[in-house]
Design goal:
There is one protein chain. By secondary structure, the protein is mostly helical. The protein has helices at about 5-35, 40-50, 55-80, 85-100, 110-115, 120-155, 160-180, 190-200, 200-230, 235-250, 260-275, 280-305. The protein has one domain. It contains 12 helices and no strands. α4 (about 85-100) packs across α12 (about 280-305), α6 packs across α9 (about 200-230) and α9 (about 200-230) crosses α12. The two termini are about 15 Å apart.
């Protein structure tokens, strides 16, 4: 077996860190500089017309709150393994976010967080991250379905029969999961998963759900306030329902973090187009949401990646 010297290992780790951070910044620059749908002249005109220091600070505060609630969620869940500070949770969440930038649906986040813990804790960390992301997805589905139904009631995008069929398939899926929960594949089954979830104290689950709801409402309302900043005058209920529907459908599509705004933007253009909202406004808002909630955290996370020291034993 070929052994690698300590200096060689350190060099490889440094190169990996630089590749991750350098790649992150390259993809961010590439998406912002080469997107021909972004009309910066129109944006500058709109910004000069509606510029407000308090408004900008408020939008930035919502971005901070969105990510801070995610950090609190992670700190709360990790208590199952050990208690960590908010600072440590911040390092793990933002560092993992940066590492996950190039992976489908941010799956690299699981490995990124695991590296901050002992190798023996890897499975627990991955499972806790699944719980952390899982509750957010459940809320996205619940709010998204209600948003779609409300939107469809106003614009009749799909027929009543199609809605009934979708609900029928949804209940059928739950029924199948219930009957096959004891079937194990490579030692894993739904029943075992439920048992492992129940092993986590209820107070941790309750706090996780409350923080997840808070984060969802913060994120969706940031979308709402940006539309209002761009003079989109639509009823609150209709605008929020459309945001719920767009976020649900966009989150259901496989994508990469660095393409997140493009996917959400394309779905948003279709739905908001039905509401008569200009395409460039929808694209800009989707890009701003991506910049505020992915790019800025990744910039901070890059610092943690460069200073990262794995707790896995060499």
């Amino acid at each position: 077996m070929i052994s690698i010297s300590h200096k060689a290992k350190q060099f490889l780790i440094l190169v990996t860190k630089l590749l991750v951070v350098g790649g992150a910044f390259y993809f961010i620059y590439n998406q912002l500089a080469n997107n021909d749908k972004l009309d910066w002249v129109l944006f500058a005109e709109k910004f000069k017309k509606n510029q407000s220091v308090l408004g900008i600070l408020f939008i930035l505060f919502l971005s901070f709150l969105n990510r801070f609630l995610e950090i609190l969620k992670w700190q709360n869940l990790v208590e199952v393994i050990k208690k960590i500070t908010v600072g440590e949770a911040t390092k793990q969440v933002l560092g993992a976010l940066t590492a996950a930038l190039f992976t489908p649906n941010g799956i690299g986040e699981y490995a990124g967080k695991a590296l901050f813990f002992e190798k023996s804790e890897t499975k627990k960390v991955i499972f806790l991250n699944l719980i952390c992301n899982g509750i957010q997805m459940v809320l996205t589905v619940i709010f998204g379905i209600f948003g779609l139904l409300y939107f469809n009631a106003n614009y009749n995008v799909i027929t009543t029969k199609t809605v009934a069929l979708l609900f029928g398939l949804l209940f059928l899926g739950f029924g199948v999961l219930f009957f096959v929960k004891k079937i194990a594949i490579k030692g894993y089954s739904i029943e075992k998963l439920i048992h492992k979830i129940n092993e986590i104290p209820k107070r941790i689950h309750q706090k996780n759900i409350l923080l997840a709801i808070g984060r969802y409402l913060v994120f969706s309302h940031q979308y709402y306030f940006l539309f209002r900043a761009f003079d989109v005058e639509l009823p609150y209920s209709l605008l929020m329902a459309t945001i719920f529907a767009v976020y649900f459908l966009a989150s259901s599509l496989p994508t990469f973090q660095f393409l997140d705004f493009a996917v959400k933007g394309s779905v948003a253009v279709y739905f908001f187009g039905l509401l008569g909202v200009n395409e460039w406004i929808v694209v800009f808002i989707s890009t701003l949401m991506w910049f505020l909630n992915v790019v800025l955290p990744v910039v901070i996370g890059s610092y943690y990646v460069l200073n990262f020291k794995s707790k896995w034993k060499q």
